[in-house]
Amino acid sequence: MEGRILIIGAARSGIASAEYLLSAGKEIIVSDMNTKIAADVETKLGQDSVTYIWGAQPDVEALKPEMIVMSPGIPLTIPPVVQARALGIPVISEPELAFCHSKAPFVAITGTNGKTTTTTLTAFLLEQEGRKVLAGGNIGLPLISQCPDMRAEDIVVAEMSSFQLESVHTFRPKVAVIMNLTPDHLDRHKTMEAYAQAKANIFTNQTSDDFLLLNKDDKMVSAMAAQAHSHVYYFTQKDILDEGIWLEDGQVRFSLHADEAPETLINADEIGIVGAHNLQNAMAASLAALLMGQSPAVIAERLREFKGVAHRMEPVATIDDVLYVNDSKGTNPDSTEKALGSYGKRPIVLIAGGKNKGSDFIDLVPLMRAHCRGVVLVGAATGDFIDAFERADYTDYVCADSFEEAVDKAHVWAQPGDVVLLSPACASWDMFDNFEQRGDLFKKLVKDYEGK
């Protein structure tokens, strides 16, 4: 089987990789432990040039594939990956496969929080007549489904997760952005140092011809400049810079060259997305767009127009003077902290819980005391929340046996003027396939209240 490409994981990115490689005339091996999907996958991909391995780990030493393409949800500690690395066989993610087969330059964005908003906004800022801008990666369609058709004058804006960046081999974006680092996915990475190193892989192959954008207000992120071979720029809300983008007297200011006078891009209060975290997102996206050649005037105009993305602080409805907000993408405590601080003095009924990714929720309690009328807990992490609440002597919570019950309890608990906020601080995988499915159900349930 030497010369074939092994795809481990037959979910969305694995299928997209398989379809592209087959169209390019490659022979592939598709492997997945989940035998329930076998019939559907084989119907979709067919039998020509495909070997399937279901319900067992592939023996890489026997197969000797030229490359392995990994689905992001599968850890790199499984035996086939260990075998492959011992044999010197490249192990890459689907976005890297797309990068290898794209003529267009990449802007790649990672971090714990703000990735999706920054990715979506960057793509929006870069759009112009005659140029295709593709936003994808950890959001939307797999990049490999469209990247091979991109031209050199087009741009790919890729959201990159730590899982995808663990297996970087040749991936080299023209612009790399690291938003922030707070504890997340420690059930997989085990330590913050390992998690940070996975994120740092986004710039490991960059050269002096490339750009690295770092959050100067995050000590762990800003310290990564010491590892960089690329031209480092910072974004900050606290300092005035010689190069980069910053907040000064209520204005977003920037300079791409230390020997040039800085310019004002926009007044911060004109930006369409609100909150300090979104100002950070907007500055990072603007700096990336400036470095990719977009004009300041176009960027400023589009910053005023952009109103955010689905499942991230998304207003759903106001019913009986209660605002319902879908922040289903708030899958870690730091993200939920930012959400809780976004509504001033309006009391919040928070819906939290799901699959814990290795977090301790104790640091959320002071914000809950300050901002929440109460908390509705649901999902597998309920016990972890209760443990934190008992340690902090916090009692303003109830539990629900289902997501529908959780939304209903929050609806009943809320009073006029309140906010019902779904910001779970957890992944969705205990009850849903993904955070989008969770957010969509929340929106449907809220919309049902409008008709009552």
Relative helix content:
25-40%
Q: Using only CA atoms, what is the Rg?
A: 23 Å
Q: What's the overall geometry?
A: globular
Number of helices: 17
Poorly predicted tracts of residues: none
Proportion of strand residues: 15-25%
Oligomer: single chain
By DSSP, the count of extended strands is: 20
Largest sheet: 9 strands, mixed
Strand order of the largest sheet: 7-8-6-9-10-11-12-13-14
Helix/strand class: alpha/beta
Description:
The protein is 34% helix and 21% strand. The mean pLDDT is 93. The chain has helices spanning 12-23, 38-45, 60-63, 79-87, 94-100, 115-126, 162-165, 186-189, 192-200, 219-222, 276-291, 296-305, 333-340, 365-371, 382-392, 403-413, 435-450; strands at residues 5-8, 28-32, 50-54, 67-70, 91-93, 106-110, 133-137, 155-159, 175-178, 211-215, 231-236, 244-248, 251-255, 263-267, 314-319, 322-326, 348-352, 372-377, 397-399, 419-422.
